[in-house]
Fold these 4 entries.
Entry 1:
Amino acid sequence: MKTDRNSYLISKALKSFVLASILTAAAGQLASTFDAIVLAQFVGEECVSALSLVMPVTTFISCLGLLMAFGANALAAREIGSHNLEGASKFFSTAIWSILTIGIAFSLLMYAGIPVIMDIITDEEALRDLPAEYLSVYVPGAWLEMLSYALCLFVATDGHPRKVMMAVFAGVLVNAVVDVLAVGFLDWGMKGAAGGSLAQYAVNILLLTLYLRQPACSYSLKWPGRKGFRCFVENLKEGAGVSISNILMAVSVLLISNIVYNALGEPGLFCWSVCLQMLLVSAVFINGVMESLFAIGGVMLGEHDLRGFDLLSRRALITVSLLVLVIVVLMYIPGAVGLLFGVEDPQELAALDHVLRIYSLVMLPFALTLVLVAVYQVLEMIVPSVICAIGQLATSIFGIWLFATYAPSLLWWGFPLTSFLFLLGQLFVSFIYSRRQGCRVSALTLIPYSEGGRTFDSSVRYQSDEVYTILRNIDAFLQESKMSERDQFHLNLCCEELMTNIAQHSQGHVVDHSFDVHIYSDDKGTCVALKDGGKPFNPLFVGKRPTPDLSSKEGGEGLGLCLINNLVENISYKYMYGLNIVLIKI
């Protein structure tokens, strides 16, 4: 195995995806936070507490969408990475039809059970009316959120996170307009805020559906037929870890709300509600990084690129740490957060600032644990991902209950203490597991260093002499494989033509960096992935164009690219995450 890989293109793809995902998630969370701000300004502080009580229900509903779509999206990413668009469409179609049937039925069922839901949320009669108003509008259309989220995931994974970002921004704008009109002018209160959220999801669905009709889309919506149930089960299994984590998050919010209310009363519940809003804002960054792991990492695993996934995971951990620190800094600015939620009394502002500064210590360990859970999930390590998801929240609830029972004045310190203790325990167990596996997996992320076959990995500078050096190394690597001499010769010609074309025609800042070559070979065949960060350029399309003037430079170039189309049948091109990606399978 030859490995000479740097993280330039991986960082470029991560930045491209995470930036769009963060802006998308930020816009979505901004809509939720804007609901709280509008309600606080036009109605009163009690609406902010009501939203925190409603959150477990809305989170549970979104988790159903996660369960049906998140795993399907990860599976589709692997199929795209292995150049199996029919398989990608199978998982996509199953997820969409599941939401349109099960999602709608469940939304209507929950609408009929709102009184029962309110009994579960709180037994305080004074706290029931406002949450019930919100749910009476939101719950019947909850399936819109499920469908919107599913489409966002699939379109972003297909290499177009910016299209998702633009659709979500349009939806957020609609939500803001509806909020101001319905709450501020029509005096619809909680019902108006719920209506704004549903309007946002409807706009998202409308705009993202347009992408599905474009030729560049990897998915086609079909009725899954008899194999639909089996595919549905695969989707549920794959998405179980993240879905369970989110369901438990909803349960933990409900339990913590009651613990804080019983220990500190309404002032404590309000402080917890504001802390929760800040945690949701940090979730914007966390979810953006996690989605990049599922999308980019899923494609990499489809390419059998474990080294690339390891580099991606480490970059993701660094990225989420830096991003979360932005929220921590905001929480340390005196009065900055309190004023947003209608707190004007100096004593109340000081008390809230004190709580926020303690709670800010939760952000980093919470984020790192969730990113590691995402890594385990992408690797299909369901048991570790579920254990970590359950363990983090269970530890937090138990620790906070202890503080509330025996030292209520120190209750807020229970949040960071339990989070840090769990992260340290998680890393310790990961280290021990790596040692027991003979150090064949990463002690940090549990990513295996090999999956049985032979791998060639290299980052190549845009220089002809280095390209030919790598081509000689590729030739030596292929000679040791079980490929026939004919296939070796054809694959060498394809790599030579494509790599020299990349080196000769890339322009701008990319020439100061490198492009990546990844080859994986086992008994089932050989896969090659070539990735560069230049402008979008489809060599397969150029190779299919007529080149009548073969004596010209352009004609000769076209002849070479035409050659690779005839030598290899299973070859594809896609522009994803700011990268040109050519996949070859023999």
Note: The first strand starts at residue 2 and ends at 4.
Entry 2:
Amino acid sequence: MIKPILSIKDLSVAFRAGDQWRNVVRDVSFDIGPRETVALVGESGSGKSVTAMSVMRLLSPSNARVTGQVDFEGQDLLALPLQAMQSIRGNRIGMIFQEPMTSLNPVLKIGQQITEVLVHHRGMSKTQAEAEAVRLLEKVRIPSAKSRLNEYPMNFSGGMRQRVVIAIALACDPKLLIADEPTTALDVTIQAQILELIKTLQDEEGMSVLFITHDMGVVAEISDRTIVMYRGEQVETGTTVDIFAGAKHPYTRALLSAVPQLGSMTGKDRPLRFPQVEMATGEIRPVKPTKDTVKRDEPSILKVDNLVTRFPIKAGFLRRTIGRIHAVEGVSLELKQGETLSLVGESGCGKSTTGQSIIRLTEPVSGDVRIDGKNVITAGRSELAGIRREAQMIFQDPFESLNPRMRIGEAIAEPIVAHDLAGQADAQKRVGDLLERVGLSASMGDRFPHEFSGGQRQRVCIARALALEPKLLIADEAVSALDVSVKAQVINLLLDLQEEFGLGYLFISHDMAVVERISHRVAVMYLGEIVEIGPRQAVFENPQHDYTKRLMAAVPIADPTRRQTRRISSDEIKSPFRPADFVPPKRLYTEAGEGHFVQVS
């Protein structure tokens, strides 16, 4: 019998809450064999990340109580002295965290952060460590590795930062790699590259992998066995193929049912609500069909012509402009009231800058933007404030969008009072109505942001955006970091509000399966330009541009029997930096179908 690399028995974790101890993980047991990938699956709060932190002994003993047994290569990690544990952590066991920017020190160069591990754990000299750092960066497919050692984390894209974190985790040739949600906020193409990279390195190094995620599509792509956790308990364990073919526990079935499937909208001509899944029982509740909300015979709520946004790069003693970042280059689009136009593409393509430029949170260089017929570009301060009443923005991270010291009722009431739409008393009544409209209770207005879950905080942000009764909502990655069930609830809420108020949505996202579900039309961005735009059905069922096809091919399929061997590519989006005297070429488009336009290369 093959001896497991890691064996966890009856692991339980409790956190101190005042004078009480609150159990968050109860009696979890599983093994990981040599070269095996085990996925630990569940939604936020299920205890999966706490389980990983317990294995690494990263929980504070003053606030956390961990019991059970964690055997790694014959040693009980929970019984080891701290110094002995430090020699294993980062050495024999590597860990990748969800957000690479919080894992990397922003004021230290990448090379320093890798060589530090090599000097400390492997006793290398500085020269040896630098040579090994270059080798590690090349191993994780970072081009021009030697020249990038002296760059800071801010100079890398999200996908490349995650590769750096993987390089650090692999620096000491670990026998076990713990990957905690390493692809959650990444674009589909970068996610595909990272998953393939982990699989390739596992084959090369003979590692075992504990992969923590809530994305069942990712589980199908990478894991040999799967452990499902729900409210701190292990509810189902089995091979990934068996679990996908015949899940036994209601919660596992609910997770699988909640995964948006690319291609599920084939033949449908309008957005469709997600089925509502009761996570505790696995029951799927039917949803009402969507109505046709697009006001085709009325003037557009948003019209953008040749929008250009560039950021100057200055250098030298005189701070001369040596070049520019061409973030948005010649973007034109139109949006009717009651319509959803999705803007899709990888990080760095310019989609978020486009959304911010439309309402002048970022100042564009040139172009024409009209919201409800009013000129945004030439508007003065007071006129712009009036225009912004018609167009509100919902950001990706609701926690950063809310003042942590302000009760959410005050946060929602603030724009109402600031724009003189109601007095304080009437504003509070309106806040209660808005909270109930987004599926919360009016009494929740007295709570602070930290007292809400991620999905509830996003509902609060939607309520605040609706406070000024806008006609246009710009949703910038508003659901990308949410669990699948919460994501479905928020998308359904947006569709309900669109029907009720006739809202127009500019929906900015990299999640192709969600985009397919919610959109009337889709625009694909690459290097600051729209390369394909048209009706959702035409773009998804008959993509014409190579980049659009690449985006769709990268979406993981929630079926372990259809795993594809992808050719790993280290290609990123090319740099949008251009010399100061650069003149953009005039772009030509061909019509592939009615309203379906594709950029000619």
Note: The chain is about 35% helix and 25% strand.
Entry 3:
Amino acid sequence: MAVIIGVNAYHSDSAACLLVDGRLVAAAEEERFRRVKHWAGFPVEAIRYCLQSAGLRLADVDFVALNQDAKANIGRKLGFMLTKRPDLSMVLDRIKNKRERTGALDELLCAFPEDKFKGSLRPIEHHMAHLASAFCVSPFEQATVLSVDGFGDFASAAWGQGHGNSVEVEDKVYFPHSLGIFYMALTQYLGFPNWGDEYKIMGLAPYGEPRFLNEMRKIVLLQSDGTYKLDLDYFRHHKEKTEDEWDSGEPRVAALYTPKLESLLGPRRDGSAPLEQRHRDMARSVQAMYEEAFFHLLNRLHERHEMDHLALAGGCAMNSVANGKIYKHTPYKKVYIQSAAGDAGGAIGAAYAIESQINPGHVRFQMTHAYFGPEFSDQEIAQLIEEKRKDLIAAGCTIMHHTDEQALLNETAYAIAQGQVIGWFHGRMEWGPRALGNRSILGDPRRADMKDILNIKIKRRESFRPFAPSILRESVSQWFETDDDVPFMMQVYQIRENKRKLIPAVTHVDGSGRLQTVHQTTNPRYYGLIEAFRRLTDIPIVLNTSFNENEPVVCRPAEALDCFLRTKMDVLALGNWLIRRQS
């Protein structure tokens, strides 16, 4: 039996996974346990969960695979240092980071002092881990593989081909050129400074027109071979240290752009200032430039490989708007993006890179669902409810335990149809940033005011950000202009025009929806809930957003109950329990 722990550490979205004989049995992000968004550092709690879920100890582990390799691209690093002469603080910071990464084994041993680790630590180059995370769990026997992100191991993109159980890297885009840095810098310029705020630009873009696309083309320069470069006069990341000390907390990055960007585009937006049409047009232009560069590269790769399947990873693979246009703007016929395409997903990529080395003939594992996190028994939930009973009664709640699952589904579906907001917690937590029906907040997609209701009661987020539809797999082609299978909510597609008025709560201003297809085989309870809602309303869709309130998605029942009590959620479906707040 080969036991492999995969790790994403010392970067945003620290995470761990566990492979046993090539099968992914557990995976989780550290932020869910630490309760700090995008937590960076070494994922001790995620590793602990993975081992406990399989009844294993650190002594049983053969390999720990780390999705970074300080020795990767060393020639490029030295050449850059010698020719560009960056600021000394930047060089010292890189040396410090390298020392931290080489101390990963020490951190592991300190976290598990009772165990003797008999295996070995194996570093895997950052983009190789991304590529393996996409291809090695995909349904494809061969495919073009592409990773695009900010930076990792001195590169911002890599591509090649996947065959059987292995990935061959052909080429890369190296530091300091990066589509991820471009998108992050413009996100900061538009007044959204937090790590991971790029999705806000995607949500804002449909409200504008690409009036600034010509200016964007001065910033991102497309090359004849399909790659791209940045006009570095607009950026600071290659000259100065821009990352704050992350250690064991939320990542923070200083402004990546120079005053020249403001000379080109006008004054930056302060985060507290109201959004003007100029900002909406800028967001649309940023998204349009990203798509132009992304499809430029994809089309060249298709010409080169003549393959119709694409496996995609990296932080930029979270751009669900661009992903939904791949079939329209490139010849690719099938795309696979696993549920944690960003840095967290590098944990499974590193693990599968090792697995393919030690067992090249193994039967491929296919990730058809994302439910690899912690789960909790009915008895554990019952104990929590008993402990919190006084608080629940004081809050005017009624509590009911269901032994009949269909009755629970029917009652919850009826509450949704009545316009109530439901906290939905069951089964294993999702792997990746999306709530996919196990740690979700649900609402009625038919209500035009549901977005406002959710923001008033729970979310308190920007009004321009859309909410997503979860739909029964068999109904996709009737409601969307596609029949693609999108189980991980990684693609945005157009909703059919004649259906948009029926589901305004999940229809964005441009007529699109970030699709999640729900299968009976992979999540029977969530499927059953949507089917119960369909029987009531003739709508095979519910509104789905993550179960949280400006925090990481809830992991444990106690966090779900706390979120329910401090917000104005109407109903909490906690395993087999229904808790109702009386109006």
Note: The mean pLDDT is 93.
Entry 4:
Amino acid sequence: MTTTLLSPLLRLTDISRYYRAGEQITAALKSVSLTLYSGEMVALVGPSGSGKSTLLNILGCLDKPDSGQYCINGVESAELSPDRLAWLRQQYFGFVFQRYQLISSQTVLDNVALPAIYAGLDRQTRLERAHSLLRQLGLGHRAQALPGELSGGQQQRVSIARALMNGGTVILADEPTGALDSQTGAEVMSALQQLRLQGHTVIIVTHDAAIAAQADRIIQLHDGQIVSDARQSDAPPPADIELPAKIEPSRSWGRMLAEAVEMAWGSIKGQPLRALLTALGIIIGITAVACVVGLGQGAREKVISDIKAMGYNTFTLYPGSGWGDKNASVLRSLTAEDAELIGALPGIVAVSPLVYAFPALQYGARQTQAQLTGVNERYLSLAGRALQTGAGLTAEDIALQRPVVVIDENVRQHLFAADDDPLGKMIKIGQFMATVVGVAENDNFLRSSASYMPWNALLTRQTARQNVDAIVFRVQEYADKTMLQQQIETLLTLRHGKKDFFIHSAEDVTRAVERSAATLTLLTLSIAAISLLIGGIGIMNMMLVSVTERTHEIGIRLAMGATQRNILLQFLSEALLICLASGLAGIALSGVISLMSPKLLGDIPLIFSSFSVAVAVICSTVTGLIFGYMPAQRAARLDPIAALARE
């Protein structure tokens, strides 16, 4: 495929450009009109400050005139958006700068291939094209070198190869030999002459009369105006010329994003320590988020597991109108007969009176404090308290009010040596003696020492009252719990003459614990959010510093045809990569903490689930997007000329 260029190629009509410094206004160009044709080599000459570089920048769409009209192949540049102007720089212009303007951290090959990235050429094709251009200019053997390892002439030839990467219809050279010795300068001019012979339009800014003499046309400027425009007598007349095929650009979002991520990763690798220090805040925040979510899930599962052991169908009847009733402690309304009536109702599986006491327990010289609960023979199975050893309480023990006791593992450890069997031993409970008939597992809810004995034996030996403190009962799994509760309330209200009790279920405990866990989770997540906020501010500060430090590099990329979207994606990708890497590090750290959680948290598991990972990744991604956007947008909106002027 070939592209036929129409002449005139570039047309400027009454172009003016002013620079403002405070209240002072300086005219760099004054009503300049100029027509340039394809295949010409044009030299712009004149003293310093005459407007040569300003004119070159306007021709290359790096700068805009304040007034006048500039048409590129018939297209009015003033009507074009910044992205469309970037497209023109990609497709029409190739820049050769006096100071080379190569990105020092990238290889020669990557510098040459840079414009093709923004034109959307795939990696393999653009690298092959870059290799070919370097070989044509005698630099094929230096493709992997860094710019700082090359001589000035070699760097300028790299700059020429880069200018040709996208086709380079118009080559704009600003003092291309100004920093070179005469021999190297001659080599560079020879390369530019070859480009003219191939059909490229070459526009050179120079102070050197010998360089200007090699051009087909010499345009002299003075004080921002063209004072002469002369064609060499031996120069060929302007004509339409066919150029070699241009690259076919692609606008694939996927490719643009992939390239942005690749460039962002290269930038991060160039400053690894700064990136690591910046990431610490995010790592801490993500770890906190993952651990809090995992701990919340673990606590919930633990509570539900414990309640399931006791049974969701378990209900407890207490005196009073509800929790916090000040009169509940003096009410003596609940009795063992109430428990018998409840147990006789259809749908009730088991029932037990409850009598509470808090005596000291003693065996020999050892003593401990434990909650003593008076129960019947069905309580331990009803409450899910498995026996480790012994027979437990029997119906006969209850009937005969025997002074026997079942202790839990905590009490056994406090009162007995490790090799001492407590079964059959007499322990002192307050002012009376009781025989140990069983050792039960610890109560997961109580979290302290507990012991159990016949409820009536406890009433007669420890208290002077006949009422019980509570009644616990379990209903059948598929029974209508609401109807049973209503029946019990009706029965006992008629029996007592008033409703002086309330019923509490295991489900109520679950809901209360979950509400408390949710509040604690919210509080901890708030702390984690503060960590993420601090980390996000660190990301933003780092990116702002990076934009400042790399302003010159951004200017080079803009000159090579990068659109605002390209720059935005690159810098936003840097923030996202840092945050995602921080998120993965936070997840890994959370995984280590979860493995250590049995030692740190006891029997409350830290459940490190896919949900925890998802929350952590989402948080890190959102942090990167929010705090990376402003620096990325600032980079994208830089003016190409101002950016190139920064060193």
Note: The first helix runs from residue 52 to 59.
